[in-house]
Design brief:
2 copies of one chain form a homodimer. The radius of gyration of chain A is 21 Å and the shape is globular. Chain A is built from 7 helices and 18 strands. In chain A, a hairpin with a 3-residue loop joins strand 2 and strand 3. Chain A has 355 residues and is α+β, with helices and mostly antiparallel strands. Helix content of chain A is 24%, strand content 29%. The mean pLDDT of chain A is 96. The interface between A and B is large, with 65 and 65 residues.
Chain lengths: 355, 355
């Protein structure tokens, strides 16, 4: 970045929450990063200032047409005292891929990375210390032009906020129950499914509430064309171990290319465990369960890292996985990734960036 | 509404634009309507105040997860001096249908209607006078809770803004060229397609820009499952006259139930013209064009009322409609609806509400 980031520090720092009371996404640090875009200027005025409200005209495009997107990654305070971002390069890349699909102008990858490292560094005392806690980094881009009409905005606001978050598994890693949804569709090829577009999440709220009322933690979507191949969980990618093969749906346009998904596949290949990115029908899963070869099922995502699945429910069938217990490989993957994140294992793959 | 609408008038009214310079959605009137929702209070504090910016925490849910929606309708200044809203009851109904799909709490239909009539009445001098002009009414609901996480918000803001808009056909009604898109998908059954969700518009930006670069005005989407049945145009429903039959795709979950679409179907039925809501494949259209029975094609929507289509372009085939001229029925439908809107024909169907 040529002209650097202008920093205005807060004069009234907030009290920091106790590590033990942290939730997810409800408390924010002292500062935020902001940068504007105008068609005639490009991206300009990179700045950090006190965390505070945005002032938006009621006609601002983002409020009407959802031309908005985000990323989500975490900074971890290692046992060695260092603060590490996990695979920020992959998040930068995905940010610009999403931007393209939404007609949002790309941002120089170095500027994006710098916005994260500079902000986290400034608010580094906000990175919690307790086991399993972290600082969640939320970069967001919104269409900022005030006009009504369906066309790309001519101005945008890129901002980054930080939220200290509690341990996902504060009460231990418990396998969850997931509803395989035969009614609602998250995305189809040709749509927004592979982008981290705000719009995808709007579509998932109703199916998810529906599932919660039925006692399920999440929804596993089936593909919108055949209604038989599994897609993703809305906030996680899904993986299955059938016999000795680990299987996850391919990145064919309708599911999000998860960074944790990518990390898991890399580890499996390193470890010599067969891992396939291929279509899996719900029928294949039911059949494997019947034959006793459905060994493990787990979700992968930034929030939970690895989330063991104890049961899939599909059309009145309870598909119980590994007697509802955490699988051996599930646990091994979780431990391996968390070790890199907290610096207790060497980062041999260039996955972390020290702030 | 029990406790009425609290009105705070502006102390600095803006100069009104000339009717001849009006565009669409770029200028706004002196006032706006606002109402809040909280889980523990329901919808409360209905108020009108000066048009001005909203103050939103950067973590506000709408900016991240697109839990937002809108409606769009028009107020017309009749040749008799009266100001009329066109079919507001249909828009109120659709507003609450959309809200349900997005987990947004419903609003009392009477309160919604009152928010429109009261605001338009207060800013009635802003309703332009020139032929073809109108006052566009934009009700919007956004998730207003500041938190990160994929779940419905616990608070919402409903607001209404008004924009005086120019004549859509200021330079005469010219048939447009439309690209039949074989690559991108707008929505599938099980998704958000039948809701007026902001999210649907985010998905349409890229395909639309793509089409514009090719010299087309709009995109006609095909269904996301078979990729052969026509859906809608993103901002309009589509109708075809093949021989003596008028055909439009059915409301089967993936297209918006347009109010103009409904009005056109009602008129056709009154006039004894066969009108079918059924699936039409692009192949059927190509075949009809080849046989010379593709008589007319037009879009229906609030912005243009009726938009004649002169050409459909599909996979290197130019499907020219009625030699690129406006069809007889297309013109008749336009004239009939516009006459009701401006009060030059009697409203025999209860379609207008005088403000």
């Amino acid at each position: 970045m040529n002209d650097g980031i202008r920093v205005t520090k807060t004069t009234s720092p907030k009290p920091k929450p106790k590590d033990s009371t942290l939730a997810f996404g409800t408390e924010f640090t002292d500062h935020m990063f902001l940068m504007d875009y105008r068609d005639d200027k490009g991206w300009y005025d990179a700045r950090i200032g006190p965390y505070g409200p945005l002032t938006l005209d009621p006609a601002t495009a983002v409020l009407h047409y959802a031309q908005s997107m985000f990323e989500g990654l975490k900074a971890f305070r290692g046992t060695d005292g260092e603060i590490r971002l996990f695979r920020p390069d992959k998040h930068v890349q995905r940010l610009n891929n999403t931007a393209k699909r939404l007609c949002i102008p790309a941002i120089d990858p170095e500027v994006v990375l710098e916005s994260w490292t500079t902000l986290v560094d400034l608010d580094r005392d906000w990175v919690p210390r307790a086991v399993g806690t972290s600082l969640y980094v939320r970069p967001t881009i919104i269409a900022s032009e005030p006009f009504l009409g369906v066309r790309p905005s001519k101005s945008y606001l890129y901002f980054v906020i930080l939220s200290p978050v509690g341990a996902y598994y504060a009460e231990g890693m418990n396998p969850v129950k997931i509803l395989v949804d035969a009614k609602y569709v998250r995305a189809v090829p040709g749509g927004l499914g592979e982008a981290k577009a705000s719009a995808n999440y709007a579509a998932s709220l109703y199916p998810q509430e529906d599932a919660k009322h039925g006692g399920f933690t999440q929804v596993l979507y089936l593909d919108g064309v055949h209604r038989k191949y599994i897609e993703e969980v809305g906030t996680m990618n899904l993986m299955l171990r059938i016999g000795d093969e680990v299987i996850t749906p391919p990145l064919a346009g309708s599911i999000l290319p998860g960074v944790t998904r990518d990390s898991v596949l890399a580890l499996l290949r390193e470890w010599g465990i067969p891992a396939s990115e291929r279509q899996v029908s719900i029928d294949e899963i039911v059949e494997a369960a019947g034959k006793g070869t459905l060994e493990e099922v787990f979700g992968t995502g930034t929030a939970a890292v690895i989330s063991p699945v104890g049961e899939l429910f599909y059309k009145d069938q309870h598909i119980v996985v590994n007697e509802g217990r955490i699988g051996e490989l599930t646990q091994r993957l979780y431990d391996a990734i968390v070790a890199v994140q907290y610096g207790t294992a060497p980062d041999t793959r260039g996955w972390t960036v020290v702030v």
